[in-house]
TrEMBL record:
<dbReference type="InterPro" id="IPR051121">
    <property type="entry name" value="FAH"/>
</dbReference>
<comment type="similarity">
    <text>Belongs to the FAH family.</text>
</comment>
<keyword id="KW-0479">Metal-binding</keyword>
<keyword id="KW-0378">Hydrolase</keyword>
<dbReference type="InterPro" id="IPR036663">
    <property type="entry name" value="Fumarylacetoacetase_C_sf"/>
</dbReference>
<feature type="domain" description="Fumarylacetoacetase-like C-terminal">
    <location>
        <begin position="75"/>
        <end position="278"/>
    </location>
</feature>
<dbReference type="GO" id="GO:0016787">
    <property type="term" value="F:hydrolase activity"/>
</dbReference>
<protein>
    <submittedName>
        <fullName>Fumarylacetoacetate hydrolase family protein</fullName>
    </submittedName>
</protein>
<feature type="region of interest" description="Disordered">
    <location>
        <begin position="1"/>
        <end position="21"/>
    </location>
</feature>
<dbReference type="InterPro" id="IPR011234">
    <property type="entry name" value="Fumarylacetoacetase-like_C"/>
</dbReference>
<dbReference type="Pfam" id="PF01557">
    <property type="entry name" value="FAA_hydrolase"/>
</dbReference>
Length: 287
């Protein structure tokens, strides 16, 4: 299944995308795609409900805004430097264990919402990433059983402000958490539809030019290793988002001159089987 959410910011409703590409309104299911939904076997219950009700569902207007496919998760956890070439372009050693940092959940937005360039920003950057959505509570999980805790996958742009991240002191979270710094979607694809998440092409274009083009086969740490590692240090809750790292080609690493987002730049990104998203960079209207 492909789960999506639609409607104005803060008023999103649940929906699905069918195999033939139609977006259907699932409001009558009575639940949002949130922690409670996943925790209470929502995917199984939704499948059964759709067998009886899909033919009765109305199509979502084509001009409807898409929000994040997951309602506000308890955590957005990110893995740094998980592609060897990205570590090299960043001038940092290849990590021996997964590097963990957080994004504020308030940074979450829809796949076609604008990227807000924050006040005083000089180095807002892009990062296409495979996001993993947790399907059930995970604590002290083994690598062997880790994939049992996955609900699905989504395309994520881990937007980053490098000056805030690297030169403002403290942790990377400062450069990762501005409003609209986590466009997610267009939908969450359930894991049964992705035969091998470790062999997916992911790419990103800036103003129509490919700048990132890689494959999850280049992971340093695979998904089971990441989930098992995280679950030793924190409890992962249903609906939590784990962003698995970005490949080479970010603005900070471009040679000979780094390139950062400016007002009006267009970012497009996609991952095999998970759909494409598009954001236009704009100065934060509240700045």
């Amino acid at each position: 299944m492909k789960l999506l959410r639609f409607g104005p910011i803060g008023q999103e409703k649940p929906g699905i995308q069918t195999a033939d590409g139609k977006n259907l309104d699932c409001s009558s299911f009575g639940e949002d795609w949130n922690e409670s939904f996943f925790e209470n076997e929502g995917l199984h219950r939704l499948r059964l409900w759709l067998r009886e009700n899909q033919s009765k569902l109305s199509e979502i207007p084509k001009n409807a805004r898409l929000g994040s496919p997951i309602a506000r998760p308890s955590k957005i956890i990110c893995i740094g430097l998980n592609y060897r070439m990205h570590a090299e372009e960043a001038g940092m050693p290849v990590p021996e264990v997964p590097i963990i940092f957080m994004k504020a959940t308030s940074s979450l937005c829809g796949p076609y919402d604008p990227i807000f360039i924050p006040k005083n920003s000089t180095q807002t950057d892009w990062e296409v990433e495979l996001a993993v959505i947790i399907g059930k509570r995970a604590k002290y999980v083994s690598i062997e059983n880790a994939m049992d805790y996955v609900a699905g996958y989504a395309t994520h742009n881990d937007v980053s402000e490098r000056d805030f991240q690297l030169r403002h002191g403290g942790q990377w979270v400062k450069g990762k958490s501005a409003d609209h710094f986590a466009p997610l979607g267009p939908y969450m694809v359930t894991k049964d539809e992705i035969s091998n998440p470790h062999k997916l092409r992911l790419w990103l274009k800036l103003n129509g030019k490919i700048v990132q083009d890689s494959n999850t086969s280049d992971f340093i740490f695979d998904i089971p290793t990441i989930i098992a590692h995280l679950s030793q240090y924190m409890t992962l809750l249903p609906g939590d988002v784990i962003s698995t790292g970005t490949p080479a080609g970010v603005g900070m690493g471009l040679k000979p001159n780094p390139r950062y987002l400016e007002h009006g730049d267009v970012v497009e990104l996609g991952i095999d089987g998970l759909g494409n998203s598009r954001q236009v960079a704009m100065n934060d209207p509240e700045a």
